[in-house]
Every structure is written in C-alpha cells, then in structure tokens.
Amino acid sequence: MTAADLDLPLIASGKVRELYDLDDRLLLVASDRISTYDVVHPNGIPDKGKVLTGISVFWFDKTAHIIPNHYISATDGVPDKVRGRAMVVKKLTMLPVECVVRGYITGSGWKDYQATGRVSGIQLPPGLRESEKLPAPIFTPSTKADEGHDEPIDLERAAEILGDRELAGRLRDVSIALYSHAAGLAAERGVILADTKFEFGIDEADPARPLVLGDEVLTPDSSRYWPVEGYEPGHGQPSFDKQYVRDWASSTGWDKAPPAPEIPADVVAGTRARYVEAYELITGEPFDGWLSRTSA
C-alpha cells in the first residue's frame, strides 16, 4: 500500500503503517509489511494488517472505561480497498514518550536486570529468572527515535522530556492500569501478556485537552504475548509475534543491514498462522468474524 493507492493526502508512512488526512480526522492503515532488526522485508505476511487492526479495535473497546482513545470507526469513512486493516481515528498531538509496561522480566529488561539488578532505574528483587512474573507491573518508558532504536529511560527523564512531572506520573499510572486490565482478560483466554507499549496524545480539539490513548494498542507487534500452556520461567517463551520470522532471519547469515532477504513461503505461512491464532485467542472469535464485519 502506497500513497498512490488512496486518493488522500499521505501524512506519514512507517515500516508498517500509513497515516492519511481526512480533514478533521485521520485514516490509520496497517499494511502486511514486516520488518526484523528495523529493516522491512520485500514480501509481507498476508492479513497481518487486518489482524493488527482487529485486535486494536477489540482492545480500544475493552479499555475505554480506563481512558478515552482515538478510535472512531473501522467501517464508516474507510475506503473499500483498505477495509479490515484501517481505522478512522481522532487527530491528536502525540506525546514524545513511549509508555512501556512490563509484567514479566524478559527481552531488553532481562538483559538490564542481569547487568544491574534494575530496569529503567527500578530496583527489582534479586534472583529473578528469565520470563518470571514480576511482583507488580513496572513502568519503563522509552524515547521515540525518528531513526534507529528507541532508548530506555526512567520516569525522571520522561518527566524532563515531557516538561511536566505530573503528566509523567499520570502516564505511568494509566499505562499500568491498562496493562493490568488487559493482562487479566488475556489470562482468562489462556494468554500471558508479558509486556506492552502504549502511545498517548492530547486531543487539542476538546477544550479540556484530555489525555487520549492512540496508535495501535495491545497487538502482537506492540506487545509480547505468550501461551499460558507450557509457560515455564527460566528461559525464553514462544510468542505470538514476528519472533518466528526473526528466528529465521537470524539463521540465514544475513548481516541485518538493508536490503532484507525475502521470507520463504513456509515461514510466511507459519507467521500468518501465529498472527491469526493471536487474534482468535485474544478476542475469543474466529478471524473470519472480523473480516465479515469490515467487508465492503
């Protein structure tokens, strides 16, 4: 999907999404592109964009009582050719901090813990094992990098970037509330939400300038989901995300520099199956249900 495919002004294009202008609203389109090590592969994963959009819509509905979100519709105002993988959303002034919440010690948090006993300045109990559940969820924000990788920061640095200590504290509290609510619902469906990231903005069109949840939310691309079945601390866990592609990419000898290699058909099929399985487990409905509701 490129700007030429929709007769709308293109505002931004990222590794996975395009953002189009709808005057007082925006159209957020999720493509089937997939990247590893920040490089986009030449072929994508069929239906990945629809899975990401469907899961976001599900979670926007399930978390609206905690904080308002930018979601308006996945049908009204959505062009036919991007139905199922696009949302009409509110325009927000996005905040320059990524709000990461960790309920389990894994990934970069595990590496930091091994080195220092801390994650984002937060002291954790000694003796934790990889993938172990933390005593309580922790807020570990990061910068938003225009290029390269986001950098982990502590709450104090987040407050400096935002220029508002009270806002930083509110982001922490709301992020943890969102994570805790979602983790509870996911657990009922046999899925562990290990960690996730949120993005927030300010609705300047509202005189009250409320804080609003934006971007995608609680998808396999922005979160680490593990199956409850077979979960065992002490090592890494299988996940419902692009780890399958990442594992393949790391086995090819590719040096992680552009251009990325083409993904083999069997890896594409396996990755698609994992994304669809994530949708069905998390939402509790067949993926076809989302496709039929959003079909033109």
TrEMBL record:
Pfam families membership: SAICAR_synt (PF01259)
Catalytic activity: 5-amino-1-(5-phospho-D-ribosyl)imidazole-4-carboxylate + L-aspartate + ATP = (2S)-2-[5-amino-1-(5-phospho-beta-D-ribosyl)imidazole-4-carboxamido]succinate + ADP + phosphate + 2 H(+)
Any GO BP: 'de novo' IMP biosynthetic process
EC number, as in UniProt: 6.3.2.6
Origin: domain of life: Bacteria
Pathway: Purine metabolism; IMP biosynthesis via de novo pathway; 5-amino-1-(5-phospho-D-ribosyl)imidazole-4-carboxamide from 5-amino-1-(5-phospho-D-ribosyl)imidazole-4-carboxylate: step 1/2
Gene Ontology cellular-component terms listed: cytoplasm
PROSITE patterns xrefs: SAICAR_SYNTHETASE_1 (PS01057), SAICAR_SYNTHETASE_2 (PS01058)
An MF annotation (GO) of this entry: ATP binding
Coiled-coil region: none
SUPFAM superfamilies hit by this protein: SAICAR synthase-like (SSF56104)
Stated family: Belongs to the SAICAR synthetase family.
Protein name: Phosphoribosylaminoimidazole-succinocarboxamide synthase
Originating species: Baekduia soli
